[in-house]
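CO-FOLDING WORKSHEET

Operator: S.A.
Ligand of interest: zinc ion
Run index: 429
Mode: holo prediction, single chain
Checklist:
[x] sequence pasted
[x] SMILES validated
[ ] output reviewed
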Amino acid sequence: MIGHDPYAPQSGDPSYDVETYDLDLAYRVRTNRLEGRAIVNAVTAVATSSVTLDLIGLRASRVRVDGDRRTRWQQGARKLRVALPRRMEPGERFSLDIEYSGAPAPRHSRWGAIGWEELADGALVAGQPTGAPTWFPCNDRPDDRARYRIAVATDPGYVAVATGALVATERRGGSDVRVFESSVPTAAYLAAVHVGRYRTERLSDRMTLACAPAQRTAARRAFAPLPHMMAVFESAFGPYPQEACTIVVTADELEIPLEAQGLAVFGANHLDAESERLVAHELAHQWFGNSVGIARWGDIWLNEGFACYAEWLWSEASGGPTVAEAAASHHALLAALPQDLVISDPGPDRMFDDRVYKRGALTLHAVRAEAGDAAFATFLRAWATSHRHELVGTDDFRAFASRVTGRDLAGVLTDWLDRPALPPLPGRP
Ligand SMILES: [Zn+2]
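OUTPUT RECEIVED:
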């Protein structure tokens, strides 16, 4: 067990790990009312007699551990504390059954308003990094990955899309219920639900588009490159590691697109040609971030650097600027910005700083310049396939890069990852 994440010390409980979340949700768009029942199957990591779950803005009304009606529990502003029936030893299993409800809303965090968010005519989830507790009780840690079953009931006319593969649709008491299952390990921040007046259609045998009719034509055009993009990335990173590939386009404009496990959401404003790099970015997160995952937020460059590098790979593969050209132009942009950030530990307030993203991608380009194209290609694919659905850290990356490329990259990686000064453009003598 590691302790609390220093970037989000109030989130999560390191004393247990969740194995499965089984969520039954009913959501009314008009009144923004969410009623939920969460069955959380978990295992203790240390000896403990109580556990906490993150739950924000919603009230629990009933809590049971292993079906016990006498379960003692209390709820504060951020946490639901539940007493276990006895002191449990490490490795013991328990099951929580929690009923809860309320008007879900984003939480205000140092990263802005995140979590469940109402749209003009629907709702979305922006979970990263600590938004998950605004819609279900969870152990909100990036290193606690679980399987999910999510059933969402909505009023007729609305369609819910959630993390996982759609396994059932049914009519229940005047509501439309759609059930999703995800058997790949998923962190709470990568679970999501989107509700809107969507219609779904297949983009290919394994890709689904959900959007409102008004966005359909533009969305079809915007996501037409997706099958080619998928082929390019599968050849670079190995087989697509998710059970679903679902794209949601909201009728609202969104600030940024968001990735979740097997799922990504784009705004109505992300359907133009300039947004194609964002499509590549979010798709690449299915390998880097969602499959190969970070245990600590301080390692966020591993998600974002790879996703940005994938944008450059797609640009080159689709006839745009080459990787070398993209690297050169982003290096020039970074050189003009303050060099006061260490990307292997940017600090919580700067973990989403664009310099973490771009310098992360340039770090990969530096590995390529040192190792050569062939060894780098082997490394890229091996990193994604050998850590498929596993947790990694920056030190794993350092060791793996040197081992797979057969080069001692320690010095180069220290310059790129651990020092604020921007090293020269890789590949330039
Ligand atoms: Zn990203």
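REVIEW:
The chain has three domains: 1-103+125-194, 198-288, 293-418.
DSSP finds nine helices and 22 strands in the chain.
[x] output reviewed
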